[in-house]
């Protein structure tokens, strides 16, 4: 008898769990119907950690062993990055740019509708950031990226003023200097550029890290190979500043997944070294804070363009000069935490932007030539040493360089999805497809970067080559999947399509709210694009997000990317390396038709690798690399 009871107990527990799951499923489906938002029923909550880490296995098994009719209705919607992999096709299938996926767990709302995105980003209290997802980013403590509510307001208010025009001047100067050093590495000893650079991303990561290290923390980093030289060690340190920072960022996934004790005691050497780098860089930064405090107290001049110097100066302000007690300056530990998250987010975002821009320009020769022509007309051969931030940056931002940057960010945004939620808040009204709908409480929200290729919000033309589409399934009848910087010079009188129905229903006065937020948090209300370029409708271009939680370092990133592109393409051209298909001698002996054929193979491989990009922190190429060559203008091998 007891053995029978022991057998029945687990069966009873399994039955109870199954019944509970079924009831939750039914209840969620009813809520989805009541919401008024188009929905799809899926077997799993797509943002569950187990699913996020194992979904490729289960999707492969489902595709191989389940009948198509069993999976066709939900298969695409349980792919966490379907807005990148499939773009707008899943939305098109349901006939709506905003959809709910419904499971036995939480709801998930996906939207590629600019109007809906604009509503959500403006209503920061109704649709907060799901900060629990960012707990792993608290490597050195709470910061502006991982807090919400009053704590976030304080961090944001104290960190936003750091990104000043004076600091941007420093970003500009350091970018010009560091990019020339990077080109020296790419061009080789003879500076002819007849060598293949296999891993461009490694160098753009290094460039970005060097710029933010100088502009943010006053540390000038040089381009010789990163080594843990004894001569570079600070007193009492076992790693140099540069080596510790590089090693920590290169292995940051370990710091995200494991706590410090596990890293410290791990039998795996790379994990122990990650812990060592974490300790070493943290100590360097603490010493930097102490040093800057001492310099200020001694009356020594500080470069106030330096971000960490400004934070330390804020600590030492007399009480009557601080805005209020609740906005008291950041503590030493908070300075360290915010410094690290700014480096983490900033350097990877700009590095990926430059990497993808170089690839896309190498694959689209006519656009590269238009960029070079525009740079030549502006600089007129003026040496880089005579370039001026105030005079030259506006021209770059409003010209072909700015168009290239915008188009790269449109096609390959840093984040596939920008997360919001209704955790901890009640059901929220939302205008979807012109109707008043309801977002249920406990809904995870993805603002999808596929809004960038949504033909409802972007001007478009016919595809360049309908037989060879730029994307295998999305936008087959238009050119929105194609890299076409010239599209940003289209009709400047294009009207903003954003509707006003939300205001009419008294949900929110967006303009008044946005103005209040901008004043409170010193948020720039300027467009992400120049006045001379096409300005997408509000919510249609979210490369830097929107609203109060938009990117702190937007202008920092733009200055760096524009400066680097200008340095490179004012003097050089970038080409796809074809070493896998032909030797240099074979290419030299080819006629134009043969060169086009071998170049097309390189383009096809580059497209495959770009489409295989995926996210850890940001969207990045992870399945290989596209080798490039940099040559002086006029010495190109592929010029057609």
Automatic annotation (TrEMBL):
Classification via InterPro entries: Cyt_P450 (IPR001128), Cyt_P450_CS (IPR017972), Cyt_P450_E_grp-I (IPR002401), Cyt_P450_sf (IPR036396), Cytochrome_P450_monoxygenase (IPR050121)
A GO molecular function held by the record: oxidoreductase activity, acting on paired donors, with incorporation or reduction of molecular oxygen
UniProt superkingdom: Eukaryota
Residues binding heme: 551
Keyword DNA-binding: no
Keywords linked to the UniProt accession: Heme, Iron, Metal-binding, Monooxygenase, Oxidoreductase, Signal
Annotated Gene3D superfamilies: Cytochrome P450
Keyword Heme in record: yes
Cofactor: heme
Signal peptide span: 1-16
Any coiled-coil regions, as ranges: none
Family the entry assigns: Belongs to the cytochrome P450 family.
Protein name: Cytochrome P450
Organism expressing this protein natively: Endocarpon pusillum
